[in-house]
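Box 3.1. Reading complex inputs
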Amino acid sequence: MLNSNKVKELTVASEKKASTVSSSLISYIIRRIAIGLIMMLGITLISFCVTQLVPGDPAAVNLGQSAMSNPEIVARWRAEYGLDKPVPEQYVIYIKKVLHGDLGISQQSQRPVSTDLGEFFPATLEIAIFAILISLLFGLIFGIISAINRDKWPDQLIRFFSLTGVSVPTFWLSLVFFYIFFFKLRWFPTNGRLDPGEDAPSHVTGIYTLDAVLHGQWALAWQAFRHLALPAIVLAIYTIAVLTRFTRASVLEILGQDYVRAARAKGLSEFLIIKRHVLRPALISIITVAGVAFGNLLSGSVLVENVFSWPGLGQYAFKSAIGLDLPGIMGVSIVVAGIFITINLIVDLLYRLIDPNMRQSK
Amino acid sequence: MKLKDFFGRKGIAFASISALIFGTGIFASASSIAATNTTLIIDSEFNHKTVDPGREFESGGNMLVRAMYSTLMTFKGGDAGKPIPDIAVSYSGNADSTVFTYKLRKNAKFSDGTPVTSKDVVFSLMRLKNLKGNPSSLMDGITATAPDAYTVVLTSNVPNTAIPVIVCSPSLGILNSKVVTANGGYSTVGADTKDKAEAFLNATSAGSGPYNLSKFSLTTEVVLVANPKYWGPKPKYTKVIFRNVKQEVQRLNVLSGASNIAVDLSPAQTDGMSGVNVIEGVSTTVWFLYSNNNPAVSKVTSDANFQEAVRYGLNYADLVKFAGRGATQAAGIIPSAFQGALKSSDATVRDLARAKAALAKSTYANEEIGLRYWGGGAWEGISFDSFATKIAAQLGEVGIKIKLLPTPVGAALTTYRDGSDTMGLWFWGPDWPDSSNYSQNFAPGLKVGLRAGWLAGANPTVTDIVNKVALESNAAKRATLYRNFQLEINKKSPLMPLLQSPAILVSTTGVKGLAVNPIWKINVAELS
């Protein structure tokens, strides 16, 4: 039996350890954020330089034929967007503005880039969240079923579909799904985030389903959800396929470990073996893939957004690039860089939650 | 192993709930689609950047602004040659086409009920000029004055026979000067820096047209509602929703009735469509090829024999077929809808023997000649890549090796506009619907001429015609001069007019009175 002093010592040691882990976690997060900010600065520099290297005159894209032949109009336009200054000076001015929260004015929309991003990013976030949830659910289930039925028909069937999912071009798939599920079957509404002429819910997050729920507009939330479903499913198909294949591989690898065989020998049910001894270690690598996939969903949904008239970040990036809209391109670069840096940080933190060994390590 | 053994009851229950959620979403009935008798849904690929009349200059912007703002004169249906009264009931011009006087109707009102007066017209037109924006060139050399409350006088520095059609442009839409001024609008010199009314005008219309702006977006949808104070005939549709929809999806939407009108379909996309109305017209967009006339850019392409080889080596009939139903060969650089347009019998016809003979006489030595165009671009259903490939194949039959140079639009426009490309494939849509827009651009030393290396003095005959037509106020004589101008271009120039794009609108059968207008595509107020 432990005496009270011993208990006290153990308690103090435990608190000290917890405090050390906690402060080490905080310093880790701070370090990662600092590195992330430096990386974002580097990304802005690279994006800026690459944009300058692209041949072409933004004025030529944004001004009409007649306006381009009027030097006064061209000069005024260049001055308005700061393009009349030397390139290094343009970059310094840009960074100073960014540090003050000003991402500049988009040459395409002629609105502050931050306003544009505030409108477009939540639309992409909404579709990406829904897509990743679908992907995780089905990717994990299919991957596990496939692994535990290795080389049997369920495995063959799932592998066939996952290979197809990885191989089919998203643009084509979008059109086919739209044709079948909207045009032929009428299961889903047409393109757009809401029905034609419908007013969006008052802005809280910019995620319509959530905003509508927050305002108690249940019918609108349901409408937004139904508009969201088809593009999200199309977007999820590739990710489901990737996660299925990855889960299958990870589970198969772990199923061959000695401790899994030992668990079986102990007579544990297959469900408990998978739940306790297989899924947890497999999750570490699955989370990495899911994190990257989520980043890709956020930054690479342009084709789906195009077909479904989804006013998201992908469409904005595409239009900015075509229009040589430097502030727009830079704004998107910063957001996408921020997404990947944040996701990587979250994934690393999740490692620590899942894997006790990593939690102990500094 | 059974699923139940593996997942357990919780797992099965979780999967069932998930399936239920997604299943409910999937099998939900389709949305309340499309149109009622009073709501119209129009699908197009958005290209507008604003609905401030003084700043907009895109085809999509024209369609929207046309519905919200009256102009001095306008066009009816698909016509773009004969101005008819709008805010002005009549106009007259002086002999040398430097002064035009417009008499305004007295019953016209803005959407807030205040009367439209000459003060508003002068404000709007001078604001457009002094904003120095994209469409400001329409007011180049023109000044608006108001001798009384219902008379407006437009005075041009130089003879300008195009003023009667220029005033039909939606960019010259009449703004409520009091409202716009109160919201940061300026019309005087310095408006380019002082005017801050664009944001206001993108949220609230201040016009006297049949519709008011209800909702504005550059990316999703624009909603217009009928203006209760409109002074003209009430439009049939009380609400018009313009949606930004991809071309491929527009087809399915209009077929299913989820929209009433699809704006951007190509002829091929309308093949096999049934249960809808397909309205065909010819666009005023003229596609042309040029062979740079500047020896400093290329000794080969500037060679008149080489240019002749290209001109007669092209199979125009085949190009028209490629462009699809509704396309026509451009007999000259001026589109068929405008004054002085050439007849189809004047069009160049392929003569392979003549082309080969001319090539043999030229300085061409079997080298590759670069042809620049907007890579990946398309306009009015015609893909630049396919078009350029077709041209390269046809010129290959003559013996000319073309090196295709697909280039992103920004870069392609830059080299096109600085005149440094050896050959180029482009199109021209008129800044204003009049032949003068062509004589003022497609001549030696002028805008497009310079882009094609056609320097001043390169063809004195063309220059002489251009100078004469600028001063000629007699319509019949102008028409003759425009014809001669084009015939000379077809005979000896670096420019080869190719074709006029098809213009197609598809609507559900309930939509009546739809016509393709070359300037604003659709006038929604005309629909019945």
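In summary: Residues 274 and 517 of chain B are 23 Å apart (CA to CA).
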